Amino acid sequence: MRHFFLPGLCLMGAFALSACTDQTARVQKAVQSVKASDEQSLNEIMLTVADPREAVAYFQKGAAAKPNDMSMLRGLAKSLVRAQEPEQGAEVWAHIVSMPGATNEDRVAQADALIRANKWKKAEQVLNAINPTYETFDRYRLEAMVADSRKQWKKADSFYATAAGMTTQPAGIYNNWGFSKLTRGDYAGAEKLFYKALSYDPNLFTAKNNLVLARGAQRKYDLPVIPMTQVERAKLLYTLALTAVKQGDVATGKSLLKDAIDTNPRYFPDAQRALDALENNPNG
């Protein structure tokens, strides 16, 4: 009678082995999923808060181990740009866009790196090769900068306006647009755009400094009514003073430098040196 139990036992053993194999596969899959998740998290950390040089080393090692892993290559390109190596970053982006699976986002990033490397003509070629139907904030931001570099003002203004309408945080683009107007000599137009930038980000100091430059160029030597710390106030007075001196309004410049020195809660060596130079200049 015991022989009748053997087929059943064998069958049960087969089921147990199958269940064990399935469980092992599920565990391995789960482990791989955790590893992939951890790698993605580590990639994001390296691209945001890690030291740029450490990030470059990390992604170089990853790309060497997985030469066709586009996430590693993208991380390397971005890290090189963060590490102030845009030319090398552009080379990595060029490799990425030559690979199957490259996207228009990759091409825009390549153009961005080329602009940072001061390779404007190549950046323009890359942007021109992107399908016109691909419309993003970054694309129009770069298109505006390229148009600026070619002094195509109407085109630049159109691109800046389009880019500003494609983001909920347009302070940076309004600041860039204002600086473009400043370099063209449209000081009143620049002033309006810097005010607009500050309406979206009251803490953007570059916009505050540029606003003072635009006002100073119009010989408006009083500080604008905008939020500022005491240290910022001193720095803006210093900027205004140098603008006044540059325009030949030396007496006003001296007065503003003295205000800057008195306003700064700490010693302000740059302002003091500028004032001393003016005081010691017989023609000042």
UniProtKB/TrEMBL annotation:
This is Flp pilus assembly protein TadD, contains TPR repeats. SUPFAM superfamilies: TPR-like (SSF48452). Keywords: Signal, TPR repeat. It comes from Allgaiera indica. It comes from the Bacteria. Gene3D superfamilies: Tetratricopeptide repeat domain. InterPro entries: TPR-like_helical_dom_sf, TPR_rpt. TPR repeats lie at residues 171-204. Residues 1-19 form the signal peptide.
